[in-house]
Amino acid sequence: MPTFARSEAMLLYPGTEPLIETLARAPYVVLAALGPAEAAAVDARQQAAGVFDPLASWVVHACRQRGWPAISADPDRLRRIDPDLPIDVL
Fold first, then answer.
1. DSSP string for 5-21
2. CA 10 and chain centroid, separation
3. CA 16, CA 7: separation in Å to the nearest integer?
4. What percent of the chain has pLDDT over 90?
5. Which listed residue, 9, 12, 65, 68, has the most CB atoms within 10 A of its CB?
6. Which helix (H) or strand (E) holds 4?
7. pTM score > 0.70 for this model?
8. Span 63-87, mean pLDDT?
9. H helices within 3-72, ranges in order?
């Protein structure tokens, strides 16, 4: 889970902070900060897709790096960046 995701979720859904923090502590959730190399890769993905969505680009980048499907309630947001990304829809 990108740290952006946690921040965005708490901003958009203010009553869910305890649930988000519980999810973030789950052993199967990987929290990741955006370093310089990842920031460049995320930027390149956005530019290639012609959109500005750092969080979606970061999720796509992380999933592609790890060979994992994405998990999303908003799959279209991710498909704008990478239409071929496997996505498990919530």
1. HHHHHHHHSGGGHHHHH
2. 14
3. 11
4. 41
5. 9
6. helix 3-12
7. yes
8. 94
9. 3-12, 17-24, 36-49, 54-66
CA dist 10 and 27 (Å) reads: 20
Specify the pairing of strand 70-72 against strand 87-89: parallel
Residue 89 contacts by C-beta under 8 Å, 6 or more apart in sequence? 72, 73, 75
Q: What's the angle, vertex CA 34, arms to CA 58 and CA 7, rounded to 5?
A: 75
Contact between 78 and 70 (Cβ < 8 Å):
yes
Q: What is the identity of the amino acid at 51?
A: V
Reported as a single tens digit per residue, the pLDDT across 1-39 is 567 777 888 888 889 889 888 888 888 887 777 788 888
